[in-house]
From TrEMBL:
<comment type="subunit">
    <text>Homodimer.</text>
</comment>
<protein>
    <recommendedName>
        <fullName>Bifunctional protein FolD</fullName>
        <ecNumber>1.5.1.5</ecNumber>
        <ecNumber>3.5.4.9</ecNumber>
    </recommendedName>
</protein>
<keyword id="KW-0521">NADP</keyword>
<keyword id="KW-0511">Multifunctional enzyme</keyword>
<dbReference type="InterPro" id="IPR020630">
    <property type="entry name" value="THF_DH/CycHdrlase_cat_dom"/>
</dbReference>
<dbReference type="Pfam" id="PF02882">
    <property type="entry name" value="THF_DHG_CYH_C"/>
</dbReference>
<keyword id="KW-0028">Amino-acid biosynthesis</keyword>
<keyword id="KW-0560">Oxidoreductase</keyword>
<feature type="domain" description="Tetrahydrofolate dehydrogenase/cyclohydrolase catalytic">
    <location>
        <begin position="4"/>
        <end position="119"/>
    </location>
</feature>
<comment type="function">
    <text>Catalyzes the oxidation of 5,10-methylenetetrahydrofolate to 5,10-methenyltetrahydrofolate and then the hydrolysis of 5,10-methenyltetrahydrofolate to 10-formyltetrahydrofolate.</text>
</comment>
<dbReference type="InterPro" id="IPR036291">
    <property type="entry name" value="NAD(P)-bd_dom_sf"/>
</dbReference>
<keyword id="KW-0486">Methionine biosynthesis</keyword>
<keyword id="KW-0368">Histidine biosynthesis</keyword>
<dbReference type="InterPro" id="IPR046346">
    <property type="entry name" value="Aminoacid_DH-like_N_sf"/>
</dbReference>
<dbReference type="InterPro" id="IPR020867">
    <property type="entry name" value="THF_DH/CycHdrlase_CS"/>
</dbReference>
<feature type="binding site">
    <location>
        <begin position="164"/>
        <end position="166"/>
    </location>
    <ligand>
        <name>NADP(+)</name>
    </ligand>
</feature>
<keyword id="KW-0554">One-carbon metabolism</keyword>
Length: 292
């Protein structure tokens, strides 16, 4: 078993991103600029957004956090998005999900100018991705492809099983792995909550990507020997034993699945760190006008 080490790959790619940002600053006199909009005080969202902002500083990007309380109206939020769309100093806009129930996330996502949609959630970017055209690719799937590439994982003709069909991970991941790209060219099966006998399918996986949001969902009896496992799970449990007050668990029973795997991502220290890289690379591409 070998680790797909998110810490190692993300640190290496951050050096490259910082070099690119420095070039942009030298050439244009400005830094790539990411704006994050955060509504409310969800613990996970607070952590993720803080990490996104911190990593922007680390690589020499400008970052701005726009905060609202839970009671912000949908109209207020949409107006803010339009204001950010029109601001020529901004390269990337993300609105952290989930949003409170009275706000339609689809409406907000579609209001973001697709040319600044560095989350890659806008239908224009998803459609362009599916057609293999230049687009912003959702950060977590993008980060996973960068990790597979870094370790030279051969995906051509392999059976990739994606567990989970979310807009953020499972669905775009399945498109990327089926595309004629590197990594890609897989035969892809998507499993979800309505799939009967998931085990019979995961047992066929050469590459297993799990984004279902359930601790220890994938157990050792559900994988074959030599499988490549990518665990997207970020299940937080409160713990008095850690400084942050919580402990993070993946969707895969790492201890028992790892011995059967050829490659596997740890949690923490795997995919989570790569998500940030996907976001930074999209923001860089926007600042360089590489996509639009
Ligand atoms: N919530 C969970 N993951 C993400 C992400 O990648 N982007 C945004 N905006 N919200 C999220």
């Amino acid at each position: 078993m070998q680790l797909l080490d998110g810490k190692y790959v993300s640190e290496k790619l951050k050096v490259e991103i910082a070099e690119e940002a420095a070039k942009i600053l030298q050439k244009t006199g400005r830094q790539p600029h990411l704006v994050a909009v955060l509504v409310g005080h969800d613990g996970g969202s607070e952590t993720y957004v803080a990490s996104k902002m911190k990593n922007c500083e680390k690589v020499g990007f400008k970052s701005t956090l726009v905060r609202y309380e839970d009671d912000v109206t949908e109209d207020e939020l949409l107006k803010k998005v339009e204001e950010l769309n029109a601001d020529a100093d901004i390269d990337g806009i993300i609105v952290q999900l989930p949003l409170p129930k009275h706000i339609d996330p689809e409406k907000v996502t579609e209001r973001i100018d697709h040319r600044k949609d560095v989350d890659g959630f806008h239908p224009v970017n998803l459609g362009r991705m599916q057609r293999n055209l230049p687009s912003f690719i959702p950060a977590t799937p993008y980060g996973i492809t960068l990790m597979l590439k870094e370790y030279g994982i051969d995906t051509v003709g392999k059976h990739c099983v994606v567990v989970g069909r979310s807009n953020i991970v499972g669905s775009p991941m399945s498109i990327l792995m089926a595309r004629n790209t590197t990594p890609g060219n897989c035969t892809v099966t998507i499993c979800h909550s309505r799939t009967p006998d998931i085990k019979s399918i995961t047992l066929q996986a050469d590459i297993l990507i799990v984004a279902i949001g359930k601790k220890n969902f994938i157990t050792a009896d559900m994988v074959k020997d030599g499988v490549v496992v990518v665990d997207v799970g970020m299940n937080r449990e409160t713990s008095a034993l850690t400084k942050s007050g919580y402990k993070l668990y993946g969707d895969v029973d790492f201890e028992n699945v790892a011995p059967k795997s050829s490659w596997i991502t740890p949690v923490p220290g795997g995919v989570g760190l790569m998500t940030i890289i996907g976001l930074l690379k999209n923001t860089l591409a926007s600042a360089n006008k590489e996509v639009y």
